[in-house]
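> forwarded from #structure-qc
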């Protein structure tokens, strides 16, 4: 099942994508107020079937991030075994940082390149969305807490990221990242390790890796994060990016206004955005 959050006539809505049409789940009697709340109910009930007509053409809506209002977004860096890391010891623990909800935009919305930087970068990733509440979850039980998966672009403002050892400023510029285009429920992805990630900039592949190359896999990350924080429905875990992003290339390749970025994960979808500029203030 593919679930979306979207704008219809200027109003926020959510629903199920069937082919190229949306069935509005928010119009059902007693519907949850948003997709985050729907996940908690539907996941607990084992994704019960719903009877609702898919009557909204996909091309008539604007897709939002599947979870526009996550309680938290937890991100991982340095999480792949790959040639770029040959000769380096594997980390004992992942490098972890967080992003704010408003640092993301949705599929086909412009990414906003900050005026304050000429080092705006792309990072394609697999995002995991949590479906039920849990604390101190064991790795053996962790996958039971996954609602589904999305594509994610962890757009990074590298000079601000490098102001100190803390990543927060460079990872949280307004609408500098994106995720979507929709959430694919976990029952449609029996083995996320079999997925392959590709990131293209202006049609050229810049990143490509299999999810089986993760150092810290999804179950490990859920167990680790749930040790220090309660995971709740709608929480997003960004599982890390491979080499090939702009600042890892020789010479570096940063993004400019008008550049086109696609994050593709076969079986999940393709997240597409074009880089835009900041709007004048006032």
């Amino acid at each position: 099942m593919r679930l979306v959050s979207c704008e219809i006539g200027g109003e926020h809505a959510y629903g199920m994508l069937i082919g190229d049409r949306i069935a509005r789940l928010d119009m059902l009697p007693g519907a949850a107020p948003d997709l985050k709340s729907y996940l908690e109910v539907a996941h607990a009930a084992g994704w019960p079937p719903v009877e609702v007509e898919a009557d909204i053409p996909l091309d008539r809506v604007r897709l939002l991030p599947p979870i526009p209002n996550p309680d938290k977004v937890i991100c991982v860096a340095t999480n792949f075994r790959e040639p770029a890391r040959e000769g380096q010891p594997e980390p004992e623990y992942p490098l972890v940082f967080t992003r704010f909800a408003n640092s993301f935009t949705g599929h086909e919305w412009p990414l906003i390149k900050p005026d304050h930087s000429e080092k705006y970068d792309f990072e394609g990733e697999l995002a995991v969305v949590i479906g039920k509440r849990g604390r101190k979850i064991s790795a053996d039980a962790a996958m039971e807490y996954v609602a589904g998966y999305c594509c994610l672009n962890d757009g990074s403002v590298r000079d601000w990221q490098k102001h100190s050892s803390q990543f927060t400023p460079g990872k949280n510029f307004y609408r500098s990242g994106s995720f979507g285009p929709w959430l694919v429920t976990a029952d449609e992805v029996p083995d996320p390790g079999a997925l392959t990630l590709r990131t293209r900039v202006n049609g050229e592949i810049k990143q490509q890796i299999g999810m089986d190359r993760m150092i810290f896999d999804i179950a490990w990350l859920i167990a680790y994060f749930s040790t220090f924080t309660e995971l709740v429905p709608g929480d997003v875990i960004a599982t890390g990016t491979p080499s090939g992003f702009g600042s890892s290339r020789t010479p570096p390749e940063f993004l400019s206004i008008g550049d086109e970025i696609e994050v593709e994960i076969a079986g999940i979808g393709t997240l597409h955005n074009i880089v835009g500029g900041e709007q004048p203030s006032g």
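QC bot note: The chain has a mean pLDDT of 95. The chain is about 10% helix and 35% strand.
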